[in-house]
């Protein structure tokens, strides 16, 4: 296995995207959604990037890339169709020990980006190690069907239960059998079918009186 699978915390970190086209726009939006402080540098940019800049969601430098743009950055993503420029970005980033990703050029990357499915805080990723983006895309679509909105609700419910148990000073080692029972129950199907009374009955059976799904979910929004 060539790539070490990690999930990188970029919240509040400065991130640079070089390239203002469709690919650069997609990468900038992805970084923003994860809390990155994004700067985009490109002579030409999409209307969507202009709108994001106007809304204060990113910093837009509408000019050619300069290696000084990398100063203080946590990572850089190259999203241009200029092979010479992409290699310059890679060389500059390597010199400064900055994480670098160049679109569609895995040989120039410190990291590659998997296909992603989001269901609230549940994140499912698929990587073919750069061998077949088409297969990764297909698998992502399969996962989107397999893991529906009920997983968003279920994970939110599990998080709320965990927070309340910790607040009640339960020892963390006592939680494992509780969550094992919940995970292997029919709650996911009941969420899909809207059977909230059955969910409340199970919560009372496992956790005791005073546990209601609607109250737990309301507190975890």
Walkthrough of the structure:
The structure is a single chain. This protein is an alpha/beta fold. It has 2 domains: about 15-115, NAD(P)-binding Rossmann-like Domain (Rossmann fold); about 150-220, no CATH class. Helix content is about 45%, strand content about 15%. The chain has helices at about 20-35, 45-55, 85-95, 135-145, 150-165, 175-185, 185-195, 195-205, 215-220, and strands at about 15-20, 35-40, 60, 75-80, 100, 115-120, 120-125. The strands form 2 sheets. Strands 3-2-1-4-5 form a 5-stranded parallel β-sheet, with helices on both faces. Strands 6-7 form a two-stranded antiparallel sheet. Helix 5 (about 150-165) crosses helix 7 and helix 5 crosses helix 9 (about 215-220). The model has no long low-confidence stretch (mean pLDDT about 95).
How would you briefly describe this protein structure?
The chain has helices at about 20-35, 45-55, 85-95, 135-145, 150-165, 175-185, 185-195, 195-205, 215-220; strands at about 15-20, 35-40, 60, 75-80, 100, 115-120, 120-125. The relative contact order is 0.09. A five-stranded parallel sheet has the order 3-2-1-4-5, with helices on both faces. A two-stranded antiparallel sheet has the order 6-7.
Instruction: Kindly state the number of beta strands.
Output: 7
CATH topology of the largest domain: Rossmann fold
Distance between the termini: 38 Å
Biggest sheet record: 5 strands, parallel
Q: Helix fraction?
A: 40-55%
The CATH homologous superfamily of the largest domain is named NAD(P)-binding Rossmann-like Domain
**CATH C-level of the largest domain:** Alpha Beta
Global Rg:
22 Å
Separate helix tally: 9
Strand order of the largest sheet: 3-2-1-4-5
What is the count of distinct domains? 2
